UniProtKB/TrEMBL annotation:
Keywords for the protein's UniProt record, in alphabetical order: Transferase
Highest rank taxon of the organism: Bacteria
Record's protein name: DUF4111 domain-containing protein
Domain (Adenylyltransferase AadA C-terminal) ranges: 173-265
GO molecular function: nucleotidyltransferase activity
Domain Polymerase nucleotidyl transferase positions: 37-73
Pfam families listed in its UniProt record: AadA_C (PF13427), NTP_transf_2 (PF01909)
InterPro entries: AadA_C, NT_sf, Polymerase_NTP_transf_dom
Lineage: Bacteria, Bacillati, Actinomycetota, Actinomycetes, Kitasatosporales
Gene3D superfamilies: Beta Polymerase, domain 2
SUPFAM superfamilies: Nucleotidyltransferase
């Protein structure tokens, strides 16, 4: 018999029949997703085609109290200021009820037509579609779809589970491998360009661990969590183990917001790792992607 004093996971009915895959995710995620889904459905109504969970919550590398909840919502219609305001209010109500997830929701509201397009490319002519996103350190805002978001779509397709609505396999089309490699290369090149402006340990951890994920994807054509990619990279390039190990420690520890300048040896290792990954990116995508 279940202990009535222990937290219980929501039944699949909390999400609907399409959300049964969520029941294999961490209990903390299962417990809060119905409330977040209710807020999103209240704001969007029938504009919400589906919602999909991906990232560490489904990969098995979720770190309690640290990892974000990564979600992608397929939507129809315009993301007008009124719609964005309703979503923003819903997010804040959710955070008020679940303060432990404040600044730990990474949610993209993407056009359903773009998510289901077969090419994964942006529009060849005219204005790009508009998505909205809220993420740690970045309040809800709308912006044109760019190459950066192609990687999120790729991860949602390859690793995601359906939380609500249209099944993921019907809503999110695969992204061609060449498009993924080009997007990864652009991502790591931009990381190198912006690394000098990073000031806190959490930012340095993000740069280092994202570089590890990029290296793994460019080398093996597969994706992995930050922790898995770090383990893989430190075995492949033992010379960078100190900065990779430090990044893992910063991500999980209380030093995440520490703005003390990096020790010179770790700063040099971070830059060396970025340079090495960028060389791989340039080699693997020669003729496909530039620095712009």
């Amino acid at each position: 018999m279940d202990n009535p004093h222990e937290p219980q996971a929501p039944s699949s009915a909390a999400y609907g029949a399409a959300g049964r895959g969520v029941t294999g995710c961490p209990l903390a995620v299962q417990q809060v997703l119905p409330d977040l889904l209710d807020e999103v459905r209240s704001a969007l109504g029938d504009r919400l085609v589906g919602m999909y969970l991906y990232g560490s919550a489904v990969s098995g590398d979720y770190d309690e109290g640290v990892s974000d909840i990564d979600l992608m919502a397929a939507v129809t219609g315009e993301l007008s200021p009124d719609v964005l305001s309703a979503l923003d209010s819903g997010h804040h109500r959710f955070w008020s009820s679940h303060p432990e997830f404040t600044d730990r929701i990474d949610l993209i509201y993407a056009p359903a037509a773009w998510l289901s397009s077969l090419s994964g490319e942006l529009n060849a002519s005219g204005s790009p579609p508009i998505l909205a996103t809220v993420s740690p350190g970045s309040p809800l805002h709308a912006e044109p779809v760019s190459q950066e978001w192609i990687l999120n779509r790729h991860l949602a397709h390859d690793t995601g589970v359906t939380v609500h609505g249209r099944p993921l396999e019907c809503a999110v089309a695969a992204v061609p491998a060449e498009t993924v490699r080009a997007a990864v290369a652009r991502k790591v090149l931009s990381l190198r360009d912006g690394a000098a402006q990073v000031v806190h340990r959490g930012g340095h951890a993000y740069v280092v661990l994202t570089a590890c994920r990029a290296l793994l994807t460019l080398t093996t054509a597969r994706h992995a969590s930050k922790a898995d990619a770090a383990r893989w990279a430190r075995e492949r390039w033992p010379c960078f183990r100190p900065v990779i190990d430090a990044a893992l420690e910063w991500r999980l520890g209380q030093a995440v917001r520490d703005e003390t300048p990096l020790p010179r040896e770790l700063s040099a290792q971070r830059d060396g790792l970025l340079d090495a990954v960028c060389r791989v990116a340039e080699d693997r995508t020669a003729g496909v992607v530039g620095h712009g």
